[in-house]
Amino acid sequence: MGNYIFLILVLASFFGLGKLFAKAGIEGWKAYIPVYNFYVLAKLLDKPSWWCLIMVVPGVNIIMYGVYGFNVARAYNKPSNQDLLLASILPYIFFVKIGFDDTAKYVGLSKFKIEPSKIIKNWIDPIIFAVIAASIIRGYFIEAFTIPTSSLEKSLMVGDFLFVNKFAYGPKIPQTPLSFPFAHHTLPLSETTKSYLEWIKLPYFRLPGFGKVKNNQIVVFNYPDGDTVLLKQQNASYYQMVREEANNIKNYDNGKHSEAFYQTEAWNFINGPQKPYGDVVARPVDKRDHYVKRCVGIAGDKLEIKNGNVFINEKAQDMPEHAQHRYIVKTNGSIFGENGVSKDRTHVLTNFTLLDDLDIYVSEAGKIESPSNIDTNYYDLNMPVDVAERVKKIPGVYSINIKIEPKDYYDFRIFPHNPAYPWNNDNFGPLLIPKAGLTIPIDTHNICLYEKIMNTYDDGIHQVVKRGAQVLYDNKPITSYTFKQDYYFMMGDNRHNSADSRSWGMVPYDHVVGSPFFVWFSMKYAENNPISGKSVLGSLFKNSKEGKFRWERFLSYVEDGKLHSIKIPFILAILGIWGYGKWSARRKQKLEKASAK
């Protein structure tokens, strides 16, 4: 309904423009040609002709409508605060209003050449066009992100500030254009108030990009499981919270009832009047959280994970250079400390000094309690291979073994969350990743693999249910299904501490955002590195190992998770620009002196 209302408002504004053009001696029919009408209006207002191009950019064009309205009000001798406010907020209606207003005469903007209000000239105009320019850059070209979790540790690290190239796979047109500038899904200074309105919804459309998603590329995408969110627990998957609650109820009840019963009980608890995790809300695709993972499987691939190793089309894949795994470390004594709790109530291992020296996050390590032998201790440590080699050499370490979940061990948190597929993080699949145009058989056994794709992601919302020995798609029996778009399997390099496609399934192509290409700043956080990540000022003259700032990661180009420093070319470029500016200024002074003689 909102789309139809907006379309009516736009057509009404064109009608109003026709009246305004007539008042200025311009043929009224020019108001009904999209884009060209705003080209004519820009010329009428003595504004740059490129203003009309902004009117084709979804989202930003709504702001630009207000800019046009503000100038139209003054050009037609309606400069009162009331008229300027209406023209800026509802230009669609304002154009019609003054089109029929006999007192509205075209006088132009000549009297505003010397702006009577310094606030408008020096502040409002620059701020508005800065917002417009930044919104276009952020929405269609480059957007700044911060790595919040350790999913890709140590390739892209917690505390990396980076830029994402949206032209890598083609920028997406905003599907919810009515939103607060520079906010994603939540308003600044708020934890629950959404930053967008869904009065206008645009269909999915992607502009051409530089290439397609390939195996092993690092990709930024909208989190598919984020279509439903618990407002007081936004960092957790709503669906996983329901599964966790169902599992808790099942354990308390000793499994006396069916899985469906526990799922219903959990759903009623989370969505019921008590709302223990806050309101449950839906989010459109472009307002779902941004995730960054490595694409290990592309559309059409057959993926399988065997004992922690990824196989694509039955061929073993190389492990990422900085991949992390969990290791069980047997020691003589409490070398790595005891289990503790940090100030923010996070479980941590207490030998901060040793863990910080090894760059093992204290929140990703723990002691396995074993009262049988107080002299022998077991630790669960998350680290890359090179750190594991260092740990082996620590006096008092008896052994170190990678932690692999055994085949056929069923983890209810792992996709497809069905005992018929007893998969886990280290033994998963085989799974065929859907490709646009691919047709596969569908039955009551494999429907759990593709149900979410079929009923939510692929082609709008549909009803997919099992009834007896049949699968019904919108109440019609089906035995096969043809996919409408490509899908991808995303994994974190931090293989045992990553919520990825192993947890929530595949990523649709229409969720893909871009590719990280530049890290401009990087720092540690105290909750992960309590020693080196604590002091800001004290770290300014420390190296990356001892201080908070990871200097070697500053100003680095990203290629498939590997960083290539461009600090020297960057500094030389800055010095070159500065030097050219000084030389140009001196040259100008010499020419002025010469001409004065």
Can you describe this structure?
The protein is of the alpha+beta class and 597 residues long. It is 30% helix and 21% strand. The protein contains 14 helices and 26 strands. The chain has helices at residues 2-23, 36-44, 51-54, 60-75, 81-89, 91-99, 118-140, 238-252, 259-271, 352-358, 385-392, 447-457, 501-504, 567-596, and strands at 142-146, 160-165, 218-222, 228-230, 280-282, 290-297, 302-306, 309-312, 315-316, 324-332, 339-341, 347-349, 365-368, 376-384, 397-402, 428-432, 439-441, 464-467, 470-473, 476-478, 480-482, 487-491, 507-508, 512-522, 556-559, 562-565. The strands form 7 sheets. Strands 1, 2, 3, 6, 22, 23, 24, 25 and 26 form a 9-stranded antiparallel beta sheet that branches. A hairpin with a 2-residue loop joins β8 and β9. α4 (60-75) runs antiparallel to α5, α4 (60-75) packs antiparallel against α7 (118-140) and α5 packs across α6 (91-99). The model has no long low-confidence stretch (mean pLDDT 90).
In angstroms, what is the radius of gyration? 30 Å
Quaternary state reads single chain
Main sheet: strands, sense, barrel: 9 strands, antiparallel
- Please tally the β strands and state the result: 26
